[in-house]
Amino acid sequence: MAWEECVTSIRANLDPNAKEVNQVIWTGPKAQVTEDNLETDSFSASKPFALICPDRHCQDYGDFSPQAHALCNCKDVNGNPIPDCVPKNVLYPYPSGVCLNIDNPSDYSTKRGRACTKQGDSYYALTCFCCCSCYANGTKIAVPTGFKTIEYFQTGDEVLTASLATGSLKWNTGKVAYSMGTGPDGHQSAMVYMHYGDDDRQIIVTPDQLFLMSTGKLKRSDRLVPGVDELVNEWGEAVPIHEISIGEYIGGVHHISTAAAFDGVIDGHLLLSEGVVSGDFTLQANSGQLIDMGAMEDHKELPKIGSEEYEKKYSQLSKEYYGVMHITALSDGKREKVQRPQKFYLHGERSITVPNTAAAYLDDAQAADVYNNAPRWSFEDIGMNSSLIKYVLRLFKGFFPEINFYYDQSNVTPNAYAFVLMDMQYVVLTGGLTRLKGMDQEGLSFVLAHMISTLQKSNPIGANGWTSVAMADYYSIGFLMDVYFGKNFGTMYNPGIKQLDTSLFKYISPENQTYTNDPYQPTVDTRFDALDAGKAMDFPPDGIGGPTAGGLKVVDVKAFPPMVGAFSFVNQDIDEAASEDAFHLLVENKVVTVDGEVSPDFTVNTDLNFLFPDVSDENQRSMMIEQVRSSLIHAMGLIQLEFNDLVNPASASSYHDFTLDPDARIGSVVAKTNIPVVEIAAEIKRGVKYTLTASTNVRSFNGSTIDLQQRSISFEI
């Protein structure tokens, strides 16, 4: 890949005005950037333009980081394919991070955050772009897979409408002017269920549905109070309310408006719904005007069903699960609540069972802190962001179709989980997490990407066999880059980090800053550092078990003389029996030892005419002797190269991965999986001093790169 092609690719794919770092005028009267650009790193959003990293930064550092390797090659540090990772082409641009001295742009490094800026006022940690240097194909672009089917009903149908002009209900025939609803299989996050009347009637409505009270005023359904408020039936008689509940509903919702003109009067807009008088959609839409006119209770002054204020104000009511209010007895002291419709579920009633071994975004103590301290939306408000949450889940499902994403809105614990059940992968977002104020698409995307990362089970492994917590944060960046392509990633990154900080982690107490249920016990700060390192295509922070730059070192070497065995000479002319006989004769004549070590006195001229005495054909015998001589000449010695850590066999399996000086042919390479040793068979000779060097491709089992200053070692047999 020519660097100019990478520059062209970045400008074609991301920003036509992208500039290389050394082409930017950073200071002086003609400066092309502002202090705000530098302080906020607006380059992450290509403002005022995208930055192209120094080519050496990309080629010497970025491309070798485990993050870039995973992104570009779609393989984790173990060489395992990353599920649904999109193969990248050779010029696929990815964001990295560079610490730049704007007074001298040739002075740059990979330091991040304060480690960068504390070097001086002219140092800034900035986002720049590199290109993948491996060959791959294609990019997946998310296409949402559809919305809930909307059924439209015919207008013009006749409907009964009520008038209060005479002080009592008078019913007339009206026309339906507007009717719209969701499909029958829809999921409604927050609906109100009512049980009322002496005949135990039931109705399920939206929280803003208006009902006519016995006082003559309208009132929202989510402000109704059992045993206090009374509905009105078709004859104008009071109807007692026995229960008000809030929950989720599986089914369609419809809005209807009559053809009557609205001029501030509710006449012609009152309907009869399940035996009680309710307002049409026109009245809902004009509730503010109705309050000003005195025709409707001011809901802003009334607590919502399910809120703490509601519970305190109406302490005579009992509650069930979350946000459920019903009176336990009426005047006769015998009435009990009835069975609710099967498609209506109280909040907390339909929570999914999460296995104890599931990976969790927060540990139990941290989740408890957030639950107790963080501001959150009420259950009635849970529907406000349900469309966003469903969109985010659909978005991620498009990129990771093998994972079942589940929104457990009834679970009040602010957390997210990942687990495998019956060979199916699951990621669960709880309502306790999504109801946190300030937690938006970007923050939730970070959480989802983290849970996907845990399912990958990349080293180092944490509790219950999942990717360890901080390393899951680190690798989550690659999954986010799959979902948010190019500039979209830069646009969402900082808001997402801010949401995690100010809406979630901020509310974890000082004593619970450490994620205790993880072998590396990362702190909140460490987790943010891991995210930052992943974005910068840097190596993970120390102490979380991940790969480190130059973390793999050659520490020792042992070399053994050339060896042969009883069957080393088997070929198309020499069978196993003949090979074994030849070996014994070589031992008898002290050409090799009993253990097979080739004698140091053996040379190309050593007499081997004692071999194959039973072969009568002299030409055949001579050829067989020379074949044995060749095997002895090219017999390989064993080199045991010791490292400070286990070596990934996938990175050390070929003669291409090691070199000998002076040159000697390498036959086989085997990385041991139980000890930090690589065994190399090579044509090494006695009395020759060799230098063995490991290539930069060699990695530790956890992905650490080879130390460039400690990858060579000398030896002599």
From TrEMBL:
This is Uncharacterized protein. It comes from Chryseobacterium bernardetii.
